[in-house]
Amino acid sequence: MNTSIIFTVTTDLSYDQRMIRICTSLAAAGYDITLIGRKWQSSIPLITQPFKQKRINCLFEKGKLFYAEYNIRLFFYLLFKKMDCIVAIDLDTILPCYFISKIKKVKRVYDAHELFCEMKEIVTRPGIYRIWKRIERFTVPKFQLGYTVNQPIADEFKKMYGVDYAVIRNIALLKEIIPVEKKERFILYQGAVNEGRSFETLIPAFKNINCKLVICGDGNFMQQAKQLVADNNLQDKVIFKGKIKPDELTAITQQAYIGITLFDDKGLSNYYSLANRFFDYLHAGIPQLCVNYPVYKEINNDLPIAVLVDDISSTNIAAQLNNLLVNEVLYNELQQNCLKLRQTLNWQNEEIKLIQFYKNILE
Predict the structure, then answer these.
(1) Which fold has domain 186-341?
(2) What is the DSSP string of 61-116?
(3) Are 286 and 253 in contact (CB under 8 A)?
(4) Any idea which fold 4-171+346-362 has?
(5) pTM, rounded to two decimals
(6) Whose CA, among 220, 248, 289, 359, lies 20 to 30 Å from 337?
(7) What span, in angstroms and rounded, lies between the C-alpha atoms of 263 and 328?
């Protein structure tokens, strides 16, 4: 029987491109993979993947009660499953993974997509921060095996907990770009509509931009984002499409003219981020407006693919986007750089490190 690995998330499996990539690569490498996530009332049917999928039903869909319920249900589900390795994706499933690994005496791995406790929605709420930080301090030192998405985050884990985590970036899969007719220019934000993504300044900026903003995603800031659109009378300029299936999202991204990767600096997780969308825009061959934070700056220094900004005020966002809309020389340079860089900066190259990581610990 193949070596079995179980991955645990709190996301909806249909839209989690990062985990679909990881699980597909490991399944192709010969591992028996199961990905466990949550089921929402709005969840669409799962499509067949080269790995097993399981959704857990919960009575609660958000807040403390959801996390408590999901972790308890996850623990008892895992208790009756066979595995050789259990992988916690971020901090919100780490407790049941730790206890199951102890009970079953199997390998445990921490896959840290971000500095969970340093996200804006956590670090700005002292009570919530204390709870998650207590969980992090208890568990992370016990997960000696792990990986994260960039070196600065790996360095932070080493500094805080003495763990040496590998770096495996979440880069898009290299696929052929199918030429599409861009009937109407629009600017795209894709990903979680969460706190800390600069919607407070991004949306009002479109009062002074002669272009539409399309937002593909959902999250804890959706109601506030829609209110910002109403308050600024931008209903005709800002379009919310909600969650989009990965294949459909790829098609929309290729039709966009400019991508958006913005974060405020209220939390170290944002400052050290390496967002999935950054690579999705790159692989679609579209320039983007991006924050001038360390990891983006390092990539952009090698071959500029984005306009990097320190000032994320509405005034500067409007100025930078308007310039990119009219400056064809700059736009074409960034676009050509995207097409060059995607040939080396892609998942086909990055998955080699992922497969080697699991080979080293399991074989």
Answers:
(1) Rossmann fold (3.40.50)
(2) -SHHHHHHHHHHHHHHHHHT---SEEEEESGGGHHHHHHHHHHHT-EEEEEESS-G
(3) yes
(4) Rossmann fold (3.40.50)
(5) 0.92
(6) 248
(7) 26
Q: Where are the alpha helices (DSSP H) in the chain?
A: 17-28, 63-79, 94-104, 120-123, 126-139, 151-161, 199-205, 222-231, 246-255, 268-271, 276-284, 294-302, 314-326, 328-341, 347-362
pLDDT, position 121: 85
Under 8 Å between Cβ of 110 and 146: yes
| pLDDT recorded at residue 1 | 58
Q: Where in the chain is CATH 3.40.50.2000? A: 4-171+346-362, 186-341
* Those residues with Cβ within 8 angstroms of residue 33's Cβ, 6 or more apart along the chain or in another chain: 4, 5, 6, 7, 23, 26, 27, 51, 52
Question: DSSP class of residue 31?
Answer: -
Over the chain (363 residues), the average pLDDT of each successive run of 10 is 92 93 97 95 92 94 90 97 97 97 98 90 90 96 97 96 96 87 89 93 96 95 96 96 92 95 88 94 97 96 95 97 97 97 96 98 91
Q: Which residues pair with 36 in a beta bridge?
A: 8, 54
**Which CA distances in Å does 300 have to 64, 75, 199?**
39, 42, 23
Say what the pLDDT of residue 177 is: 86
Element at 149 (helix H, strand E): none
Closest CA to 283 of 193, 131, 171, 167: 171
